[in-house]
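Practice problem 4.
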């Protein structure tokens, strides 16, 4: 308990940054919008779970110093940047295709053929999401658990996971609500076009970012 009290101010500061990153709209929320409106609540929740586990992975890698090493290794950051760019362009292509031919929304959408696929989609997006990586590098600069034992670090990772899970599940529940789905049904072509534009813009920002 004494150790936790010593590190608590730094942990709370790190969590404040994490809450801003997890709650603010970005590629992850845009992906959840697509899953919620096309496939329903359950797939969106699975996607949110994948995002939370992806966030926990980034947290753990940052604690292990991998985040710092990658920020110092130009080739590693370049490779990650292009992976993220390609993934976002793939999402943009899917959104633009739906904008041209908007799909009908089933009244009671069910879980896709593979629940693992929905989970993996969220996980893959998060671990290649420059927005999430940038926030975790910012959190690393706080050095909330510097010098702490692994019990404190394990609690820190668990807390970060719960924050990401709560924020993205809240987004999934909101975006899969009946009024939101009804609004999407009325203007789904425009919504998909906007999502495609957002993913394309995000991919462009990643590809041209040299910092």
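Answer key:
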């Amino acid at each position: 308990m004494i150790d936790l009290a010593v590190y608590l101010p730094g942990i709370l500061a790190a969590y404040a940054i994490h809450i801003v990153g997890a709650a603010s709209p970005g590629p992850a929320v845009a992906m959840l919008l697509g899953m919620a409106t096309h496939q329903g609540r359950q797939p969106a929740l699975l996607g949110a779970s994948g995002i939370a586990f992806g966030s926990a992975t980034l947290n753990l890698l940052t604690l292990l110093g991998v985040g710092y090493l990658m920020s110092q290794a130009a080739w590693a950051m370049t490779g990650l940047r292009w992976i993220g760019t390609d993934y976002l362009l793939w999402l943009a292509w899917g959104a633009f295709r739906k904008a041209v031919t908007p799909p009908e929304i089933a009244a009671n959408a069910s879980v896709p053929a593979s629940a693992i696929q929905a989970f993996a989609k969220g996980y893959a997006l998060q671990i290649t999401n420059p927005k999430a990586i940038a926030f975790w590098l910012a959190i690393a600069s706080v050095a909330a658990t510097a010098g702490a034992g692994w019990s404190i670090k394990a609690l820190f990772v668990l807390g970060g996971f719960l924050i990401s899970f709560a924020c993205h599940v809240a987004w999934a529940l909101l975006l899969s609500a009946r009024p939101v789905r009804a609004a999407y049904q009325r203007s789904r072509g425009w919504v998909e076009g906007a999502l495609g534009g957002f993913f394309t813009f995000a991919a462009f920002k990643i590809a041209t970012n040299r910092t």
